[in-house]
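Open question from group meeting: does this chain pack into something compact, or does most of it stay loose? Before anyone orders reagents, we agreed to write out a predicted structure and look at it together. Recording both the input and the output here so the notebook holds the full record.
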Amino acid sequence: MEKNKGVRAFALKLDLTRISTFEGFILVVKKSLQDIWNRTTFDYLVNNGGVGGPMMFTGMSEEYFDKILNTNFKGPIFLTQQPVGFMEDAGAYCRRTLESYFMQH
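Structure tokens returned:
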């Protein structure tokens, strides 16, 4: 947890390709909300992360392409399904991802 001039924030690490770990991750989120802010709900959710290059588009393997899809799309969708249930009614969700591909000419 980071404390600076009255601002309280925390960051948690999660591998978005491991959907089976999401339930435990959500338990940590709920505990952190309670311990840090004395809340059971939250107002805003920001998903910021992703995976991509650096590699030539023509050299991308199917395995790496699956990793990109699982990290940048599938994982965030299935992760977000869970905490939306304890988001405030007027809350908001922002999803940002990194996708970078390089084409060889």
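Observations to bring back to the group:
The beta strands are 2-4, 7-9, 42-50, 87-98.
Residues 62-80 form the longest helix (19 residues).
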